[in-house]
């Protein structure tokens, strides 16, 4: 719930605050004296379902009642249902809906959680439908052709589209021009309730770890390790970083791609 920090404390909106990376992030911020507005389906200051348009608008409206905000950390996502609705459309709606409030904050920052799953091959039709804002078309495409979602049932394509959205939006007048840094933290496999299905089956765990090894830190990672990156990127000390997809993944992305970007 909202921290008891004073009215002059830096104020963070954290979605997905009830568990996993969101809960770890909210806890770190509170320990450091920040005011936190936690958002989740249950057990939060703001209760809203980001898989629906009504829930997204409700989140924006409720957050507005708290007054000034200085940072938005859009962590909510994961799960095995509503992949596109929550992981892409819910995240984008959170960031765009709260951007006007952010612009009035002090050292405004926005960070969204992506995933190393965004590196997996993705059906371009599905990614483009997300980027076009065509939610119904994207959901219908995935329902008609589940293979379009890849092995992650739409999670990977949603996060890939999210990465591309961040890259496109961050340098624009609405974000960088308004002094708002916009970045993504792409998490590796972390020990959270949303990832419990991976660890429940030894064969699945082995397959995932083999496909995406995490040589630094081990498999799985800890939520608080990702939270540290979110807190820094969302804080006032971040003066010069925007439009970046920061992989907090124990080296998984580097192991998979090597020096590909620089060839």
Give an overview in words:
- The chain has ten helices and seven strands.
- The protein has 263 residues and is α/β, with parallel strands linked by helices.
- Strands 3-2-1-4-5-6-7 form a seven-stranded parallel beta sheet, with helices on both faces.
- Helix 3 packs parallel to helix 6 and helix 4 runs antiparallel to helix 5.
Main sheet summary: 7 strands, parallel
Shape: globular
Q: Rg to the nearest angstrom? A: 17 Å
Helix content: 40-55%
Report low-confidence residues grouped into runs of 5 or more: none
Number of helices: 10
Provide the succession of SSEs.
Answer: EHEEHEHEHHHEHHHEH
- Secondary-structure-derived class: alpha/beta
Query: How confident overall, as mean pLDDT?
Result: 93
Assembly status: single chain
Main β-sheet, spatial strand arrangement: 3-2-1-4-5-6-7
Report the portion of residues in β strands: 5-15%
Termini distance?
47 Å
Q: Give me the count of strands.
A: 7
Question: What topology emerges from the helices and strands here?
Answer:
Layout: E1 11-15, H1 20-31, E2 35-40, E3 46-47, H2 53-64, E4 71-74, H3 83-102, E5 109-115, H4 124-131, H5 135-144, H6 155-169, E6 181-187, H7 196-199, H8 202-211, H9 223-233, E7 245-248, H10 252-257
Helix pairs in contact: 1-9, 2-3, 3-6, 4-5, 4-6
């Amino acid at each position: 719930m909202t921290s008891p920090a004073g009215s002059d404390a830096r104020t963070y909106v954290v979605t997905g605050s009830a568990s996993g990376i969101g809960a770890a992030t909210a806890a770190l911020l509170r320990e450091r004296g920040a005011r936190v507005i936690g958002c989740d389906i249950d057990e939060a200051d703001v209760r809203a379902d980001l898989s629906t348009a009504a829930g997204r608008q409700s989140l924006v409206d409720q957050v507005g009642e708290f007054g000034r905000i200085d940072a938005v950390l859009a962590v909510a996502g994961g799960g095995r249902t509503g992949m596109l609705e929550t992981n892409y459309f819910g995240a984008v709606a959170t960031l765009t809906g709260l951007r006007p409030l952010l612009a009035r904050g002090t050292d405004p920052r926005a960070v969204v959680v992506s995933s190393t799953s965004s590196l997996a091959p993705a059906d371009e039709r599905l990614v483009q439908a997300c980027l076009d804002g065509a939610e119904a078309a994207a959901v219908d495409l995935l329902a008609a052709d589940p293979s379009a979602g890849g092995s992650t049932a739409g999670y990977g394509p949603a996060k890939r589209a999210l990465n591309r959205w961040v890259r496109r939006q961050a340098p624009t007048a609405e974000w960088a021009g308004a002094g708002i840094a916009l970045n993504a933290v792409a998490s590796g496999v972390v020990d959270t309730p949303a990832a419990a299905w991976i660890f429940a089956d030894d064969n699945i765990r082995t397959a995932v770890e083999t496909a995406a090894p995490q040589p630094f830190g081990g498999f799985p990672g800890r939520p608080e390790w990702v939270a540290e990156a979110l807190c820094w990127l969302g804080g006032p000390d971040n003066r010069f970083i925007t439009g970046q997809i920061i992989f907090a993944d124990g080296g998984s992305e580097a192991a998979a791609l090597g020096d590909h970007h620089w060839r």
